[in-house]
Amino acid sequence: xxxxxxxxxxxxxxxxxxxxxxxxxxxxxxxxxxxxxxxxxxxxxxxxxxxxxxxxxxxxxxxxxxxxxxxxxxxxxxxxxxxxxxxxxxxxxxxxxxxxxxxxxxxxxxxxxxxxxxxxxxxxxxxxxxxxxxxxxxxxxxxxxxxxxxxxxxxxxxxxxxxxxxxxxxxxxxxxxxxxxxxxxxxxxxxxxxxxxxxxxxxxxxxxxxxxxxxxxxxxxxxxxxxxxxxxxxxxxxxxxxxxxxxxxxxxxx
Length: 254
Ligand SMILES: O=C(O)COP(=O)(O)O
Hints:
Rossmann fold, 6-stranded parallel sheet, disordered N terminus, binds 2-phosphoglycolic acid
């Protein structure tokens, strides 16, 4: 089961408020964010692009709930899963037609990754407040670097981020720890002083592999209940994350 695609149900809110493990006494000098499902609601834009390609090929469109379940492990797996859902190809990157499909997707998505994408409420304000207090901020996403940079510029986040590692910046993607470790190295902060904020099992696994504490936002893309992700703490969205971040990452200009 996948949630939330619409305003959270009371049950979902209750689940996300269960006691979790990361203490309020923790202190961090840097915070690294995931992009899709954490800062950015990108599924409408990804669905638009996939369905434009599908229309050209006479394939039935996907809905946003289906695409939500396919996002988080990079453009290649998204495209493989999307075509696989229409019985085109094997649903894996090993399929002979895969690289052509990814190239067509990237041409179309790269031309306009912004239309249909929105920042989650409070995302920009949270990053602005933290950057203003001297907290070092980074981004670690599996989305390819071209559209990632275009989105960060379009939503005015680029100047707030001291490090950006995208899905094709390095030869490895999350859940491999190296993209996250590279992000904190570029921020010049050791793993114990960094918090990762994500939304998915991939994010939690990456953080665990890197030895970095991780919290998740329940507004993002995942399958199953938020506490099943095994993060150190979960928040509904930026409304409840922001006051907690102000405590645990006060910044050196506070
Ligand atoms: O899978 C993607 O393309 C992006 O995913 P992420 O920003 O959640 O890492």
